[in-house]
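Morning. Coffee machine broken again, so started the prediction first thing and wrote up yesterday's gels while waiting. Chain of 383 residues, entered below exactly as on the submission form.
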Amino acid sequence: MSHFVVPNHIIVGNGVLNEAAPILKKRGNKAFIVTGKHVAVSDMMKKLISLLDENDIRYVVFDGIIGEPDDVMIENGVDLLKNSDCDFIIGIGGGSPLDSAKAIAAMAVNGGSISDYNGKEISGEILPLAAIPTTAGTGSEATKFTVITDSQKGIKMLLKGDVLVPKLAIVDSKFTVSSPKSVTAATGLDALTHAVESYTSKKAFSMTDTLAVSAVKRIMKYLPLAFNDPENINAREQMSIAALEAGICINNSSVTIVHGMSRPIGALFHVPHGMSNAMLLKECLSFAVSGAYEKFANLGRKTGVALDSDSDKSAAEKFIDSLKTVCDVCQIPTLEEYGIDKDEYYSKIPKMAKDAVASGSPGNTVRNVTEKDCIEIYKKLYA
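Came back before lunch.
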């Protein structure tokens, strides 16, 4: 029997923020809003603040999340929260503010350093969380995970616990329309990675399989449309739904080799998470496919890139080729094009391979993954 954990309440659609007012009022009287500098001065924040004002909900804004979050940002947020008299938390933004909201909530009631909880199950009674994503990709609004960089060790820490699942997820696709094309691409491909990895994970089961296939089909169809036509409201809404579906999937079936190998690249070379996933997607899944031909083949047939008459091996390979096509459409750069120095990159490969395996995510891959395997895949990215 597998557990299936989701947010207590999900509101999803185009322009649905105002529908959340009655539920937000039940969460508390004063909100601690976690966000980044850009969203803090955006129309999205103005709409949220207006909603809170109209419903007599006071608030404090912490906009100290700059780029991908690290332990210092979280400590600063915890300090402000402890002195704020807030009784619930709202994270608004991309994956970084949402992850940060979870980490701040957790560390406000747990002692020690955040690094003490790397890879461990976080428990305890934390303040209620509401999550409002402004990108379609990370799925953080539906997960029990948060990824925070250890600024001293140069690693991305994976913290987890059912208590971190937001009580309320407000998935308003209107908030994603202003995303730059590069963000649309990176976050959309992050969602695609979530869906494919959760479907082909050792931990996959019927509930997540259903949502994963749905998410993959949506993303393969609508991500190119959202990327090429940012004002396409239907494409934006479909991508928001897909990101939510994929987030629920990884919350219950986890991720595999791509995420495991992606985090070290992000930590050491500051590549945005979704983009580093996309850079790794074809090489990692080309390695993983031999352990799960049937499942990769099913994705190929469901997305229409393979025929029913194709062998599982052929259908699986056609699907992986189609992922490369989507990455090309979304203009994902190579490591070299991104500006990473080859010699510096190669010098970090042993550490990245060790950190990747140690994260535990590659262990969810049906095919066994070793440090040596990771080293060879990292080398293929920058031959």
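The chain has a mean pLDDT of 96. Going to sketch it on the whiteboard this afternoon.
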